[in-house]
Design goal:
- This protein is α+β, with helices and mostly antiparallel strands and 328 residues long.
- It folds into three domains: 126 residues, no CATH class; 84 residues, no CATH class; 90 residues.
- The protein contains twelve helices and 14 strands.
- Strands 11-12-10-14-13 form a five-stranded mixed beta sheet. A four-stranded antiparallel beta sheet has the order 6-7-9-8.
- Strand 8 and strand 9 form a beta hairpin.
- The longest helix has 18 residues.
Length: 328
């Protein structure tokens, strides 16, 4: 497992850690009365991280190696391995408390000029840490999860894993906090389209989250950026040519009955799309083509690869079209 939220900060490097169990253990520690962390009370982030690191020396597992930016150079001179691990652990905890725990409404962060960063446990977060389920608010009175401006700025007011991951797929993060902010750009939309996300999927997600139609400027930009991407959707297909036009209709019927997507093409041909079911047995398209050829043989045809050409004299084996000849 990777420590995804810590990678962008580049403040600490950890090797051999148990990331899967780290967050639940840290969450439970916040509810421990011995920590003295009362909901709503502000404490400095650094002091809380140090206390938690001292209380949870195995938070990342029984053995791990670490390197921190603040212990580099002269700052790390004379520091033994245990002290270095404790410093790294407190850095990890600070990043968790000020990052994912804030995004999901467990903690709050206060950045005041000239003062150290402060953190508090939010009331609902305290219930989650204690293993309780926070009461649901009045859904009708609650604010929409998203607020979208005409310039394409998105405020994530009610964080959840689904919303964070979805926004990260098509919008650029501006800042992350109790209310995180994202921005729609031509580059972020192009990146989303390149992964197969559709323009209408993005628009639908934003409209559901904001409970409003998209601002006209945002809708227009989504359409403009999608067109500018000039995406060409590609789909694998096989062209079947029959020798006898009377064979085409029965061949179409057989393919349809067996779950293939097929349609007439020209006067003698049938265009067959390679479905996901035919592609699922292997990672190569040839297996989908082999499955189609097996279906043709089972229907009494003799499939043969031929070159795409205008006359029979130039046909050679090993190309992109298949002759579906009938076996008498």
């Amino acid at each position: 497992a990777r420590w995804i939220e810590g990678e962008p900060a580049a403040l600490v490097e950890i090797w051999g850690a148990n990331w899967r169990g780290m967050r639940p253990r840290l969450l439970s520690a916040l509810a421990d009365s011995k920590m003295g962390l009362l909901p709503g009370n502000w404490v400095t982030l650094e002091s809380l991280a140090v206390r938690l690191a001292a209380r949870l020396p195995t938070l990342l597992g029984s053995s791990f190696s670490a390197a921190t930016a603040r212990m580099g150079g002269e700052a790390g001179a004379g520091v033994n391995e245990d002290e270095s691990r404790a410093a790294a652990l407190s850095d990890v905890i600070a990043i968790e408390l000020s990052g994912p725990f804030v995004w999901f409404g467990i903690t709050g962060i206060l950045d005041a000029p000239g003062r150290p960063r402060a953190v508090r446990l939010i009331e609902d977060g305290a219930m989650v840490a204690a293993g309780d389920i926070p009461p649901e608010g009045d859904s009708k009175a609650a604010d929409p999860a998203l607020r979208i401006t005409s310039s394409g700025e998105i405020a994530l007011r009610t964080p959840s894993p689904d919303r964070v991951w979805a926004l990260s797929a098509f919008a650029e993060p501006v800042d992350l906090g109790q209310e995180s902010h994202y921005r729609l750009t031509a580059g972020s939309i192009a990146g989303a389209l390149a992964t197969g996300i559709e323009r209408d999927q993005i628009a639908g997600f934003l409209e559901r989250g904001s409970e409003l139609p998209l601002p006209s400027e945002v809708a227009a930009n989504l359409t403009l950026w999608a067109r500018a991407h000039r995406r060409v959707r590609m789909q694998r297909a096989v062209l079947l040519n029959v020798d006898n036009s009377a064979e085409r209709l029965p061949l179409l019927q057989v393919l349809h009955d067996r779950g293939w997507t097929a349609e007439p093409f020209g006067e003698l041909a049938v265009l067959v799309s390679l479905p996901e079911s035919a592609m699922s047995t292997a990672s190569t398209p040839e297996r989908g083509e082999e499955a189609l050829m097996s279906e043709l043989r089972a229907a009494g045809h003799t499939p043969q690869w031929v070159a795409a050409a205008k006359d029979e004299a130039s046909l050679t084996p090993g190309s992109e079209a298949v002759d579906a000849k009938t076996t008498n």
